[in-house]
Amino acid sequence: MFGLGSDPVRDGLVASLNRPGGNVTGATFFSNLLSAKRLDLFRRLIPKDNIVALLLNPKNANVELEKHQTQEAAGPLNLQIVLLHAGNEDEINEALGSLRQLGATALIVSGDAIFNDRRAQIAEFAMRYRIPTSCAFRDEAVAGCLMSYGANVSVTFRQAGDYVGRILKGGKPCRFACPATDQIRASH
Questions:
Q1: Does one domain contain both 106 and 118?
Q2: What is the number of structural domains in the chain?
Q3: Are residues 41 and 21 in the same domain?
Q4: Domain range for residue 179?
Q5: Residues of the chain under the 70 pLDDT cut
Q6: Cα angle, residue 40 at apex, residues 34 and 6 outer, rounded to 5°
Q7: Which H or E run contains 69?
Q8: Residues 57-96: pLDDT tens digits?
Q9: DSSP conformation letters of 93-147
């Protein structure tokens, strides 16, 4: 059973999303795979900003993929991306402190548990210095970031809990890994 923010196929947890196979199931919110879309939406809100900082946790397994996707998406939008790395509270303070020195006028926060946990710290900084900030999770926008774009984490984990309940009642993990696929199979 898993609940994660990355691609379970790429991570080798399942064979495919519609036929995971084996004895594993779970839920994902693909938070790190939405960076290009998040950047596009953010650009529509902040059309005059040209240097955008991307806050990443270097310990996150998806950091290279997210960095690459964001930088690739920035080119056609005429944006320059500066990278900020932080993996704990002190490093977040240091990274945010360097944001203005780097000339960044906007901030995108990677979809990472440490940043969601420190959302009040990040939002407070963004509001104090009037830095438009885009985050991955709704909780971060509620805390004060300008916007968020991503899956509803509560719903995703609720779905994962539902899967655990089914397994504990004797269900096979691959039977319900993709409810939409089950409905398609049932209709044939």
A1: yes
A2: 2
A3: no
A4: 2-30+155-187
A5: 1-13, 15-33, 173-188
A6: 5
A7: helix 63-74
A8: 999 888 888 899 899 999 998 899 999 999 999 999 999 9
A9: HHHHHHHTTTT--EEEE-S-HHHHHTHHHHHHHHHHTT--EEESSHHHHHHT-SE
- 139 in the same domain as 47: yes
Sheet holding 106-109, edge to edge: 80-85, 51-56, 106-109, 133-135, 147-148
Amino acid identity of residue 22, one-letter, is G
Tokens found for residue 114: 């440490």
Q: pLDDT tens, 127-137?
A: 999 999 998 88
The residue type of 15 is A
Q: pTM surpassing 0.85?
A: no
In this structure, what are the phi and psi dihedrals at residue 95, rounded to the nearest 5 degrees?
-65, -45
Same domain, 130 and 39: yes
Same domain, 60 and 108: yes
User: Tokens at residue 16, please?
Assistant: 């495919």
